[in-house]
């Protein structure tokens, strides 16, 4: 279904009332195949919603380890901060996702970032 919508010309960067794109929502839900399709059709990784969160922030906050790896492999930047100054690492820690925290540190995320 997603492929049909994308081929028909659906706008991948369209944002809802909270500023989330389809990529934000797919990443937050852990829908790997949909994320692949959206990126194939030009969805940008660094779009921030109204709270400043990227798809990576939402995937990390939700504890979706495979999704976080995929987004980083596609080029998501670890140091992007939301409007509260939090990175994906901070949100993973706040959510109690200790394995995710370790993974993000292994990928090069730093504990302290400059504002």
From TrEMBL:
This is Ankyrin repeat domain protein. The keyword NADP does not apply. The keyword S-adenosyl-L-methionine does not apply. Gene3D superfamilies: Ankyrin repeat-containing domain. ANK repeats lie at residues 18-50, 51-83, 84-115. InterPro entries: Ankyrin_rpt, Ankyrin_rpt-contain_sf. Keywords: ANK repeat, Repeat. It comes from the Eukaryota. SMART domains: ANK. Pfam families: Ank_2.
